[in-house]
Structure formats: C-alpha cells, structure tokens
Recover the amino acids of this structure.
DNA sequence: GCAAACATACGAATGATTTCGTAAAACAAA
DNA sequence: TTTGTTTTACGAAATCATTCGTATGTTTGC
C-alpha cells in the first residue's frame, strides 16, 4: 500500500482514529473548533479520501458513517520514516535528539522513553 | 522568520547544507542521482528560493553561487515541531517512541540519546 | 402535504508547487 | 568572426490540494 495522506486528510484521520466511526457532521464539528471550514469542504475531503480508500463508509443510513481504513500505527510509522529521510537524511537518532531537545517532556513520557531504551540496550547485548 | 520550505526546497537545502555554496549545476548534478529532473526545473526552484530569501546568491561570476540562508538546526526544529503537531497531536515522546521503535539505531546513537536523557533528568530534579 | 433543515454529489474556482520550453546573454573554441 | 555550449530569466502549462456554490434528493416538524 502506497499511501500518503495530505495535511488536511491527516486532520480528518486523527479525528476518526480518536472518535471511531463518524458522520461527516461529527468530523466537521470537531474540525470547526480548530479551523475555519465550510461543511461541504469537509464533505468533499472525506469523499476524496473514500475514493482513495483511506476511508470506508457505511451508506446504509442517509448520513454515511465513515471509518479510517488505515491504521494509526502504520500510518504514523510511514510518515515518520519519510520525514526522517526528508529532513534528517535517514538518521532516526538525529530526529530524536531534536524532538527531545526542543520540547518539554514530562516525567511520565520520559519514563516511557527510558524504558524503551533499556529494552533496546538489552537486545543489543544479545547480539 | 516564518519559513516553511516545501519538499523540493528541502532537497535543495539539504544539498547546500552538506556541500556548502554551490552553483545550480552543482546542485542539479546531485539531485539527478536520486530523481528525474530537468536543469531549468532546478534553476527555477532555486530562483524561487532566492526570491523567498531561503537562499542568498553571489552574482559576481556568470554562474551564480547559492548559499542556504536559513540554518539547518533551526529549520529542522521548526519542521519537527510542525510534524509533531500534525501527526502526534503535540506529543514529542510519542514521536520518539515511533522513531526508536521502527528504526535500527546503533550503539553510538543510543549513547547520545541516553546522555541527553540523563541531562533532562537532572534538570527535572532541580525544579 | 409543505416548508425548512439536512445530506450527498458534482463541478469548478482558487492557490500553491512543480515542471519545462524558449529566448536572450555570456562565454569558449574553432 | 562564427558556431556551439552554458547560463540566466521569464512565462506558462501541468499537477495537486483545498475550497465552495449549486443542484438534487431525503427527512423532519408543523
């Protein structure tokens, strides 16, 4: 699968991942909070995403119900990979340094990262 | 400065950051290795970037010499911030988990990250 | 039933990025 | 000088994403 959602599409995907199956109106109402947008604009975008198979929809009732057709995990993974290639010439750790360096990270997040690092350490020793 | 280079522009910036001041032909030759592109296309892009002040150029000799006018550090920082907002709803650690989880990271990179984490730990205790 | 509200579909305008053809100027070699 | 090569400049086409107006059909409430 060769997928690259645009920025607008990603906004919609984020909403659907968070809220689960939703109508255009549902999505539009969330979208409206953070940006100016007409209803038909949101509709059109979701129709295009449906054409591209980014979304599937249930047309049983008049208000179609849309669902994301690609997983959040996988999509984020692809986007991160592409981003690392584009911006950091393929060096994941460079990205990590940037991300940690410039952002405030709280105790819990830090612990999660430390834990992951510990696991990676372990795996490295086993080689 | 509110700058957001496009993907094509970023490719060119990467080359200039790596190679330093270069002519259009220099850049184009590097670009050609990884993608199909006409010379005038590269030229036009660099001219546009010059208009946008992303590049500066020395017009002394016939072949103008272009130099990146924004720092790699700063640009990467801005791009990372935007990326984290778009894709991970602002959570830097989520990005880090993705990046570390899906990519092979070597010992040295891992050590750098550990070191940075240790410093962050320290700072947190001092609050 | 009828009007108002709501939904989809469609086409087209807008805007931004990318691509490239062509012309003119500078230079190089014969 | 003349011819061929290299460069810049310019304009416009092609592409893609985004936005929205309008038509049409469905449902709801009176």
């Amino acid at each position: 699968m060769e997928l690259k959602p645009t920025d607008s599409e990603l906004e919609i995907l984020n909403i659907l991942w968070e809220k689960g199956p939703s109508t255009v109106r549902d999505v539009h109402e969330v979208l409206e909070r953070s940006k100016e947008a007409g209803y038909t604009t949101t509709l059109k975008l979701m129709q295009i995403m449906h054409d591209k198979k980014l979304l599937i929809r249930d047309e049983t009732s008049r208000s179609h119900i849309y669902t994301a057709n690609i997983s959040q995990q996988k999509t984020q993974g692809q986007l991160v990979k592409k981003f690392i290639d584009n911006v950091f010439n393929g060096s994941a750790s460079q990205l990590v340094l940037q991300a940690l360096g410039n952002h405030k990270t709280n105790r819990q997040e830090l612990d999660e990262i430390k834990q992951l690092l510990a696991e990676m350490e372990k795996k490295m020793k086993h080689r």
